[in-house]
Protein 1
Amino acid sequence: MTEEVAQYIINHTQPKVSAKILHDIMLLNEFGLMLPDRYIHRIWDSNEKLWELRTKFARYNERTLFFSVLCDKFLLTNCFRKTSSKVPQSEIRKAENILHEFLQTIGGKIDD
Protein backbone atom coordinates (compact mmCIF):
# COMPACT_ATOMS: atom_id res chain seq x y z
CA MET A 1 0.00 0.00 0.00
CA THR A 2 1.43 3.36 -0.94
CA GLU A 3 1.48 6.33 1.40
CA GLU A 4 -1.11 7.98 -0.87
CA VAL A 5 -3.58 5.11 -0.34
CA ALA A 6 -3.03 5.13 3.42
CA GLN A 7 -3.54 8.90 3.62
CA TYR A 8 -6.68 8.70 1.46
CA ILE A 9 -8.20 6.15 3.83
CA ILE A 10 -7.09 7.90 7.03
CA ASN A 11 -8.21 11.36 5.91
CA HIS A 12 -11.52 10.37 4.30
CA THR A 13 -14.36 12.60 5.43
CA GLN A 14 -16.62 9.60 6.06
CA PRO A 15 -15.17 7.09 8.59
CA LYS A 16 -17.62 4.39 7.53
CA VAL A 17 -16.38 4.66 3.94
CA SER A 18 -12.80 4.31 5.21
CA ALA A 19 -13.81 1.19 7.12
CA LYS A 20 -15.46 -0.27 4.01
CA ILE A 21 -12.37 0.41 1.89
CA LEU A 22 -10.21 -1.36 4.50
CA HIS A 23 -12.66 -4.26 4.58
CA ASP A 24 -12.47 -4.63 0.81
CA ILE A 25 -8.66 -4.49 0.94
CA MET A 26 -8.71 -7.33 3.48
CA LEU A 27 -10.94 -9.34 1.13
CA LEU A 28 -8.46 -8.72 -1.69
CA ASN A 29 -5.63 -9.85 0.56
CA GLU A 30 -7.49 -13.05 1.47
CA PHE A 31 -9.04 -14.04 -1.86
CA GLY A 32 -6.88 -12.22 -4.40
CA LEU A 33 -8.03 -12.09 -7.99
CA MET A 34 -10.65 -14.75 -7.24
CA LEU A 35 -12.96 -12.04 -5.87
CA PRO A 36 -16.18 -11.59 -7.89
CA ASP A 37 -16.63 -8.76 -10.40
CA ARG A 38 -18.51 -6.66 -7.89
CA TYR A 39 -15.21 -6.21 -6.02
CA ILE A 40 -12.53 -6.14 -8.72
CA HIS A 41 -12.33 -5.24 -12.37
CA ARG A 42 -9.48 -5.23 -14.89
CA ILE A 43 -8.69 -1.80 -16.36
CA TRP A 44 -8.16 -2.44 -20.06
CA ASP A 45 -7.09 1.15 -20.84
CA SER A 46 -3.80 0.56 -19.04
CA ASN A 47 -0.53 -0.54 -20.64
CA GLU A 48 0.03 -2.79 -17.63
CA LYS A 49 -2.21 -5.32 -15.88
CA LEU A 50 -4.02 -2.76 -13.78
CA TRP A 51 -7.01 -3.64 -11.63
CA GLU A 52 -9.52 -1.62 -9.64
CA LEU A 53 -10.89 -2.60 -6.26
CA ARG A 54 -14.48 -1.39 -6.18
CA THR A 55 -15.82 -0.09 -2.89
CA LYS A 56 -19.43 0.98 -2.74
CA PHE A 57 -20.95 2.42 0.41
CA ALA A 58 -24.21 4.37 0.28
CA ARG A 59 -23.74 6.99 -2.45
CA TYR A 60 -19.94 6.68 -2.47
CA ASN A 61 -18.17 4.83 -5.28
CA GLU A 62 -14.55 4.59 -4.22
CA ARG A 63 -11.82 2.95 -6.29
CA THR A 64 -8.41 1.65 -5.31
CA LEU A 65 -6.14 0.87 -8.23
CA PHE A 66 -3.69 -2.01 -7.84
CA PHE A 67 -1.31 -4.39 -9.56
CA SER A 68 -0.53 -8.02 -8.80
CA VAL A 69 3.17 -8.19 -7.90
CA LEU A 70 5.53 -10.58 -6.16
CA CYS A 71 3.47 -13.78 -6.50
CA ASP A 72 0.28 -13.29 -4.49
CA LYS A 73 0.96 -9.75 -3.25
CA PHE A 74 -0.71 -6.57 -4.45
CA LEU A 75 0.61 -3.04 -4.90
CA LEU A 76 -2.20 -0.63 -4.03
CA THR A 77 -1.24 2.51 -5.91
CA ASN A 78 -3.94 5.17 -5.56
CA CYS A 79 -7.53 5.79 -4.44
CA PHE A 80 -10.18 8.14 -5.73
CA ARG A 81 -13.92 8.68 -5.82
CA LYS A 82 -15.35 7.54 -9.12
CA THR A 83 -17.76 10.09 -10.55
CA SER A 84 -18.00 8.94 -14.17
CA SER A 85 -18.44 5.65 -15.98
CA LYS A 86 -14.74 5.34 -16.89
CA VAL A 87 -11.63 5.46 -14.78
CA PRO A 88 -9.91 8.80 -15.47
CA GLN A 89 -6.75 8.54 -17.58
CA SER A 90 -4.92 10.68 -15.03
CA GLU A 91 -5.54 8.02 -12.34
CA ILE A 92 -4.41 5.24 -14.68
CA ARG A 93 -1.18 7.08 -15.53
CA LYS A 94 -0.57 7.83 -11.84
CA ALA A 95 -0.91 4.11 -11.03
CA GLU A 96 1.43 3.13 -13.87
CA ASN A 97 4.05 5.66 -12.71
CA ILE A 98 3.89 4.29 -9.16
CA LEU A 99 4.30 0.76 -10.54
CA HIS A 100 7.35 1.73 -12.59
CA GLU A 101 8.94 3.42 -9.55
CA PHE A 102 8.25 0.29 -7.49
CA LEU A 103 9.79 -1.96 -10.13
CA GLN A 104 12.92 0.18 -10.23
CA THR A 105 13.34 -0.20 -6.48
CA ILE A 106 13.05 -4.01 -6.57
CA GLY A 107 14.75 -4.46 -9.94
CA GLY A 108 12.07 -6.74 -11.30
CA LYS A 109 8.86 -7.04 -13.24
CA ILE A 110 5.24 -7.72 -12.38
CA ASP A 111 3.69 -11.18 -12.48
CA ASP A 112 1.72 -12.22 -15.55
Note: Residues 61 and 82 are 5 Å apart (CA to CA).
Protein 2
Amino acid sequence: MMKNEDRVFETFLRQYRSIFRVLINAAEQITSQYSVSFEQYLLLKQIHEQRNITLSELADSTRTTRSAAARKLRALLLDGFVEQEAKMDDRRVKYLRLTAKGANVEHDIRQAFLQSATTWEEIPSDLTGEDINQFFTQYQQNIAIWDRTRPKFRRPVLRAKKPAAGND
Protein backbone atom coordinates (compact mmCIF):
# COMPACT_ATOMS: atom_id res chain seq x y z
CA MET A 1 0.00 0.00 0.00
CA MET A 2 1.36 3.45 -0.97
CA LYS A 3 2.04 6.04 1.66
CA ASN A 4 -0.15 9.15 1.51
CA GLU A 5 2.79 11.33 0.35
CA ASP A 6 3.45 8.97 -2.56
CA ARG A 7 -0.22 9.07 -3.56
CA VAL A 8 -0.29 12.89 -3.42
CA PHE A 9 2.91 13.08 -5.48
CA GLU A 10 1.62 10.64 -8.12
CA THR A 11 -1.67 12.56 -8.29
CA PHE A 12 0.21 15.84 -8.78
CA LEU A 13 2.30 14.37 -11.61
CA ARG A 14 -0.80 12.94 -13.32
CA GLN A 15 -2.66 16.26 -13.02
CA TYR A 16 0.34 18.21 -14.29
CA ARG A 17 0.63 15.97 -17.34
CA SER A 18 -3.07 15.86 -18.10
CA ILE A 19 -4.15 19.45 -17.33
CA PHE A 20 -1.37 22.00 -17.10
CA ARG A 21 0.82 20.52 -19.82
CA VAL A 22 -2.21 20.48 -22.16
CA LEU A 23 -2.93 24.15 -21.42
CA ILE A 24 0.71 25.17 -21.85
CA ASN A 25 1.00 23.23 -25.11
CA ALA A 26 -2.22 24.81 -26.42
CA ALA A 27 -0.88 28.29 -25.60
CA GLU A 28 2.53 27.55 -27.19
CA GLN A 29 0.78 26.22 -30.29
CA ILE A 30 -0.84 29.63 -30.77
CA THR A 31 2.17 31.81 -29.95
CA SER A 32 4.74 29.74 -31.86
CA GLN A 33 2.94 30.58 -35.11
CA TYR A 34 4.10 34.16 -34.51
CA SER A 35 7.66 33.10 -33.56
CA VAL A 36 7.25 33.96 -29.88
CA SER A 37 6.99 31.76 -26.79
CA PHE A 38 4.01 31.97 -24.48
CA GLU A 39 6.27 33.67 -21.90
CA GLN A 40 7.33 36.25 -24.49
CA TYR A 41 3.67 36.86 -25.38
CA LEU A 42 2.98 37.63 -21.71
CA LEU A 43 5.67 40.34 -21.92
CA LEU A 44 4.16 41.75 -25.15
CA LYS A 45 0.72 41.79 -23.52
CA GLN A 46 2.02 43.63 -20.45
CA ILE A 47 3.95 46.18 -22.52
CA HIS A 48 0.79 46.75 -24.60
CA GLU A 49 -1.37 47.25 -21.50
CA GLN A 50 1.06 49.39 -19.50
CA ARG A 51 2.53 52.21 -21.55
CA ASN A 52 6.09 53.36 -20.75
CA ILE A 53 6.90 50.34 -18.61
CA THR A 54 10.51 49.69 -17.52
CA LEU A 55 12.22 46.31 -17.42
CA SER A 56 12.01 46.19 -13.61
CA GLU A 57 8.28 46.99 -13.68
CA LEU A 58 7.78 44.39 -16.41
CA ALA A 59 9.54 41.71 -14.34
CA ASP A 60 7.42 42.59 -11.28
CA SER A 61 4.11 42.64 -13.15
CA THR A 62 4.79 39.30 -14.87
CA ARG A 63 6.09 37.75 -11.63
CA THR A 64 9.47 36.81 -13.03
CA THR A 65 13.03 37.75 -12.22
CA ARG A 66 14.64 40.77 -13.86
CA SER A 67 17.25 38.57 -15.58
CA ALA A 68 14.59 36.17 -16.96
CA ALA A 69 12.53 39.10 -18.24
CA ALA A 70 15.64 40.65 -19.82
CA ARG A 71 16.50 37.39 -21.58
CA LYS A 72 12.98 37.05 -23.07
CA LEU A 73 12.88 40.75 -23.90
CA ARG A 74 16.21 40.63 -25.75
CA ALA A 75 14.70 38.35 -28.42
CA LEU A 76 11.62 40.58 -28.72
CA LEU A 77 13.90 43.60 -29.26
CA LEU A 78 16.03 41.77 -31.85
CA ASP A 79 12.93 40.56 -33.72
CA GLY A 80 11.56 44.10 -33.87
CA PHE A 81 8.48 43.54 -31.67
CA VAL A 82 9.60 45.95 -28.94
CA GLU A 83 11.62 49.16 -28.86
CA GLN A 84 13.29 51.07 -26.04
CA GLU A 85 13.37 54.79 -25.42
CA ALA A 86 15.53 56.49 -22.81
CA LYS A 87 13.74 58.60 -20.21
CA MET A 88 14.37 62.31 -20.84
CA ASP A 89 15.68 63.22 -17.38
CA ASP A 90 17.49 59.92 -16.70
CA ARG A 91 19.02 58.25 -19.76
CA ARG A 92 19.71 55.06 -17.74
CA VAL A 93 15.96 54.38 -17.48
CA LYS A 94 14.60 52.77 -20.64
CA TYR A 95 10.88 52.74 -21.43
CA LEU A 96 9.57 49.80 -23.41
CA ARG A 97 6.87 50.00 -26.05
CA LEU A 98 5.58 47.80 -28.83
CA THR A 99 6.54 48.55 -32.40
CA ALA A 100 3.79 48.42 -35.05
CA LYS A 101 4.93 44.85 -35.77
CA GLY A 102 4.75 43.98 -32.05
CA ALA A 103 1.31 45.57 -31.67
CA ASN A 104 0.00 43.55 -34.62
CA VAL A 105 1.40 40.29 -33.23
CA GLU A 106 0.05 41.01 -29.72
CA HIS A 107 -3.40 41.75 -31.21
CA ASP A 108 -3.42 38.64 -33.42
CA ILE A 109 -2.33 36.33 -30.58
CA ARG A 110 -4.92 37.90 -28.25
CA GLN A 111 -7.63 37.24 -30.86
CA ALA A 112 -6.47 33.63 -31.26
CA PHE A 113 -6.64 33.15 -27.47
CA LEU A 114 -10.10 34.71 -27.32
CA GLN A 115 -11.29 32.42 -30.09
CA SER A 116 -9.77 29.43 -28.29
CA ALA A 117 -11.42 30.48 -25.02
CA THR A 118 -14.88 30.17 -26.57
CA THR A 119 -14.29 26.42 -26.77
CA TRP A 120 -14.16 26.20 -22.96
CA GLU A 121 -17.94 26.17 -23.07
CA GLU A 122 -17.78 23.01 -25.20
CA ILE A 123 -15.91 20.97 -22.55
CA PRO A 124 -18.42 18.34 -21.38
CA SER A 125 -19.09 19.27 -17.78
CA ASP A 126 -21.80 20.21 -15.34
CA LEU A 127 -19.70 23.29 -14.58
CA THR A 128 -20.39 26.62 -16.25
CA GLY A 129 -17.59 28.79 -17.64
CA GLU A 130 -17.97 30.95 -14.53
CA ASP A 131 -17.58 27.87 -12.28
CA ILE A 132 -14.38 26.92 -14.10
CA ASN A 133 -12.99 30.45 -13.79
CA GLN A 134 -13.85 30.56 -10.08
CA PHE A 135 -12.13 27.21 -9.55
CA PHE A 136 -8.94 28.32 -11.32
CA THR A 137 -8.95 31.67 -9.48
CA GLN A 138 -9.28 29.94 -6.10
CA TYR A 139 -6.70 27.33 -7.08
CA GLN A 140 -4.28 30.06 -8.19
CA GLN A 141 -4.70 31.90 -4.87
CA ASN A 142 -4.13 28.70 -2.90
CA ILE A 143 -1.02 27.84 -4.93
CA ALA A 144 0.34 31.38 -4.38
CA ILE A 145 -0.08 30.98 -0.60
CA TRP A 146 1.55 27.55 -0.70
CA ASP A 147 4.45 28.88 -2.79
CA ARG A 148 5.12 31.70 -0.29
CA THR A 149 5.04 29.39 2.73
CA ARG A 150 6.56 26.13 1.46
CA PRO A 151 10.08 25.16 2.46
CA LYS A 152 12.42 25.94 -0.42
CA PHE A 153 14.42 23.04 -1.81
CA ARG A 154 18.17 23.30 -1.46
CA ARG A 155 20.51 20.83 -3.10
CA PRO A 156 22.61 19.05 -0.49
CA VAL A 157 26.19 20.26 -0.32
CA LEU A 158 28.51 17.57 -1.57
CA ARG A 159 31.44 17.19 0.73
CA ALA A 160 34.88 16.97 -0.85
CA LYS A 161 36.40 13.52 -0.55
CA LYS A 162 39.29 13.29 1.86
CA PRO A 163 42.51 12.43 0.10
CA ALA A 164 43.51 8.83 0.57
CA ALA A 165 46.35 8.26 3.01
CA GLY A 166 49.76 8.33 1.34
CA ASN A 167 48.67 10.52 -1.66
CA ASP A 168 50.73 13.63 -1.02
Note: The first helix runs from residue 4 to 32.
